[in-house]
């Protein structure tokens, strides 16, 4: 077989007995003696190699009982028997193995390289570690939710996978004095993260970095310098409510509560809203909400279900000049706009009679006015009362006109007019 490691089929192949010791070899330590009476030694023991390296190993039998020789020995790697041509007998008691261009270890605890007697019993085992040294961690980001704690996460390296167990340690210290500290609560928001729960100082910068180590080396990230007050965030705004605005068919009202975690601290907050229709995955974001806890969405489709989310960005905490960190989005809240009372094509509406004054210019002027109003007062209280009055007047006028035209269609109007006029 090709030099190096067996293919993926090794996992599903039947493994020679006994199977359990093979699985535990590199966890409990390589045995120096197997289940039989024979004893042997593998050299080198538990080697660590770079991917692409070659391995020259030997299995030397002690000859107990007398007559045991290397002729009947064979090798397995992760439970799969290696091809005979990869081995050769050096002398009566020693079997050599040559593997070239090794791939990364299948398990971070090491691959199982085992020397077997003719009857399949284990004579000796070794853990084979093949991988890469860690790369420099990068992209460190940190945030605090109560100005007493700090959570950080990072990216392990450009390629990430080292095929070996790699330990990551988050270190931190006060910038100008103090000793190095090590974070202890790992994997809090993902595989490469750590949480510092308390005992952090305010109004002074910290230096934060990540160290990565494994059997082949170590690496250290660049140092991130930050002040706790500059990286404060919150939980998403709670109690988000979305409701209709009376009978206005193209609007929804959104209200929420300021995050309670920072209510006792001096800070400002700005909010963002995003919304989408029920059958879409595309969100539309409203940026100009400012520090209000309510907003009216306008220009929506009548009779449509919308999902709405809100998030918060605290800033200016105790005079911090940083922009702040956005919270996660709140859970989606659903609401629907009223159905339009204006009939669409084929809805049975009576068309205006010939000679009736056109309302086109008036409607265009009104549409331009409303467009300006929605643009300049999107999520503020400016002129919303006037806007509501205009919309209510429009809907009422349109509905009244449709009813009048439906009661007196053009044919009946002509008949009535004929009864009161002299015959010609």
Automatic annotation (TrEMBL):
InterPro entries for the chain: FN3_dom, FN3_sf, Growth/epo_recpt_lig-bind, Ig-like_dom, Ig-like_dom_sf, Ig-like_fold, Type-I_Cytokine_Rcpt
Subcellular location: Secreted
Position of the signal peptide: 1-36
Gene Ontology MF, one: cytokine receptor activity
Main localization (coarse): secreted
Any one GO biological process: ureteric bud development
Entries under Pfam families matching the protein: EpoR_lig-bind (PF09067), fn3 (PF00041)
Biological source species: Canis lupus dingo
Name by which UniProt lists this protein: Cytokine receptor-like factor 1
Entry-linked SUPFAM superfamilies: Fibronectin type III, Immunoglobulin
Alphabetically ordered keywords of this record: Disulfide bond, Glycoprotein, Immunoglobulin domain, Phosphoprotein, Receptor, Repeat, Secreted, Signal
All copies of domain Ig-like, residue ranges: 31-121
PROSITE patterns named among the record's database cross-references: FN3, IG_LIKE
Domain of life: Eukaryota
Renumbered residue ranges of the record's region Disordered: 331-362, 398-424
Cellular component annotations (GO), alphabetically ordered: CRLF-CLCF1 complex; external side of plasma membrane; receptor complex
Domain Fibronectin type-III stretches: 136-231, 236-340
């Amino acid at each position: 077989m090709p030099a190096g490691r067996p293919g993926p089929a090794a996992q599903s192949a039947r493994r020679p007995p006994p199977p359990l010791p093979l699985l535990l070899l590199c966890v409990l330590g390589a045995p120096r003696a197997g289940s039989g009476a024979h004893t042997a030694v593998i050299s080198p023991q538990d080697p660590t190699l770079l991917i692409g390296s070659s391995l020259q190993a030997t299995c030397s039998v002690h000859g107990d009982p007398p007559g045991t020789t290397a002729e009947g020995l064979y090798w397995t790697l992760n439970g799969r028997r290696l091809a005979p041509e990869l081995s050769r007998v050096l002398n009566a008691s020693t079997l050599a193995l040559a593997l070239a261009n090794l791939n990364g270890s299948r398990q971070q605890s090491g691959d199982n390289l085992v020397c077997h007697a003719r009857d399949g019993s284990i004579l000796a085992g070794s853990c084979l570690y093949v991988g890469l040294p860690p790369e420099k961690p990068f992209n460190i980001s940190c945030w605090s939710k109560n100005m007493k704690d700090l959570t950080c996460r990072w990216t392990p390296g450009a390629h990430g996978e080292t095929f070996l167990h790699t330990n990551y340690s988050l270190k931190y210290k006060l910038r100008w004095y103090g000793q190095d500290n090590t974070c202890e609560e790992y994997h809090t928001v993902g595989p490469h993260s750590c949480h510092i729960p308390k005992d952090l100082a305010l109004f002074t910068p910290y230096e934060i970095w990540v160290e990565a180590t494994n059997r082949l080396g170590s690496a250290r990230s660049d140092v991130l310098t930050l002040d706790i007050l500059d990286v404060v965030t919150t939980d998403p705004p709670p109690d988000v409510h979305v409701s209709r605005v009376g009978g206005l068919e193209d609007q929804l009202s959104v209200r929420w509560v300021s995050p309670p975690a920072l209510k006792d601290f001096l800070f400002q907050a700005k909010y963002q809203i995003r919304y989408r229709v029920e059958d879409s995955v595309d969100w539309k974001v409203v940026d100009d909400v400012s520090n209000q806890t309510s907003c009216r969405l306008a220009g929506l489709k009548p009779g449509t279900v919308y999902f709405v989310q809100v998030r918060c960005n605290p800033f200016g905490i105790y005079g911090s000049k940083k922009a702040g960190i956005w919270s996660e989005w709140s859970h989606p809240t659903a609401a629907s706009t009223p159905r339009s009372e204006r009939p669409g094509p084929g809805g049975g509406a009576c068309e205006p009679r010939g000679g009736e004054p056109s309302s086109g210019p008036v409607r265009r002027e009104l549409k331009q006015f409303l467009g300006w109003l929605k643009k300049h007062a999107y999520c503020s209280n400016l002129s919303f009362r006037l806007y509501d009055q205009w919309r209510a007047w429009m809907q009422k006028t349109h509905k009244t006109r449709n009813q009048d035209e439906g009661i007196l269609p053009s044919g009946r109007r002509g008949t009535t007019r004929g009864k009161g006029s002299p015959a010609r």
